[in-house]
Amino acid sequence: MSSSEFEIIRRYFTDQQSSRADVSLGIGDDAALLRPPEGQSLAVSTDTLVSGVHFPIDTTPEAIGHKALAVNLSDMAAMGAEPAWFTLAITLPDSNENWLTHFSQGLFALACEHNVQLVGGDTTHSPPHAPLSITIHIMGFVPEGQALTRSGAVAGDRIYVTGTLGDAAAGLQVKQGKLKPTVSVAKKLLGKLEQPTPQIAAGLALRGLANAAIDISDGLNADLGHVLTASKVGADINIDKIPLSDNFQSLKLTDDWQLAASAGDDYELCFTVPEVHEKEMRHRLDTLGCAVTKIGIVSKQKDVRWIDGAGKECELSLTGYDHFL
Q1: Residue 213: what are its φ and ψ, rounded to 5°?
Q2: Model-level pTM?
Q3: Among 113, 119, 126, which residue's Cα sits nearest to residue 36?
Q4: Is the pLDDT of residue 89 over 60?
């Protein structure tokens, strides 16, 4: 038996969440009533995930629920914001109870981990053959004047990334049958693709230290490019310093740096730090157990130059993700 819209909302979304003290009124009315703390700016972001575009059609519902929220949490991390509330708009082909149960479990497991509360949204039935679509609108707090932005990088800043790059792209190629690693490596690469880890703690730790930041969703080349454009600067990147995981390196890809520099879905942070703050930044992230790697330097000369260990400039033949290319 199919469930009504309101039964779906109650069973799978209203009854499975924790409550925050700053939510005066959550799900169940025409709008939520929320109380932003005094002296904090409200950070707001929205992401839409579409089946067959942002995740393969056969992705498990738990992974879809996790990723739908994770990509939004990653935006909060890039701003140095503490996430608080989110809304969910989901367009479903049917009210499959098993799918909804596992989707909501994946969603709320991550929500509980980061103490974010679902405060509203919309549930609709899609027309025939339309893809599953999920839109999350997330809100968080950052002390006034302390938000990390894309426009603050200056020449001489050191460029860093958290974690490793390229695993999610390799995971997608495994999913597509283009790569056939061992079962163990395949599982780990797919985990990076389907259940990314938003770097919330790192983003908070970078407040007051980083001049600019962005999360790597469309690929290092594309996302670093957004920072450089907004800041009106360029960058020299050492391709030998781009951090690659052991699993990624075990694939023995030709010019593996190209995939790591261009492919998206890593959801790590890329940020710039003045030399004077490098030591403190490393201390804070080391304390969190967050791996961080210096990959280059911001320059006055526009655009990105990809340079190998011998100082030779290399051409990046791959580009970052664009929905309309």
Answers
A1: -155, 155
A2: 0.92
A3: 119
A4: yes
